[in-house]
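Write out this protein's structure.
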Amino acid sequence: MYTLENDNLIIAGQQFSSRLMLGTGKYKNYKEANDAILASSCEILTVAIRRAQNSSVESIDKLLQNLDWKKIWLMPNTAGCQTSEQAIRLAFLGREILKNLNYVDNNFIKLEVIPDPKYLLPDSLGTLGAAEYLVNKNFDILPYINAEPILAKQLEEIGCATVMPLGSPIGSNKGLKNLYNIEIIIEGANVPVIVDAGIGSPSQAAQAMELGAGGVLANTAIAKANYPKNMAYAMKLGVEAGRSGYLAGKAQTVDVAQPSSPTLGISK
């Protein structure tokens, strides 16, 4: 049996057949963004609330108007917020955007609290405080965090729907530079772990999935590729390959060579 059959990602009671999530920033135009989204077969799409409010951003305005929201689950994010207070305010605006798109029971918010302008590293304490407040207001919080196992567990315990550790800084395309900590987070998590930020190639997406990640969120690697549509499709395949490999169970690592052909009858 094909290993991905009926292998759904479940977040806050919602089921998704795709484990690749996409961001909507940095594309040259609406067509490139739309083509990439369709090629990826993604079912969760994140958009910055600040950009969604700005009708002068043509590509976002067109996406919000023309995508089939019966097939794609929109996840507003609080990108651009430097404090927990700012993120909380934008989360409530994001909920209104979802209502205007006639969503039913969509309380997803990708929570970002980022005071660091150079490396765009998230504020752990600010994220934890904002997450706790918003969970109590019936939001389904998907927090963007440093790869900190203790923080990840704390966020899970207060009711976050996922944890989303960065692989490396946003937009860097450097891959999984926090590999060991991400492994620890996955090992201890009872909610999906979505590797967010730094994924720069399909092989890096596959690596994250082979660890047992619940999914991958990609943006820059696709939007800034020479051919975003092709890269989106390649990312889809990378995520599926990594997931299949994880479910298959990797063969044991050994220190010496092991013959793959029969040794019967070979003289010693």
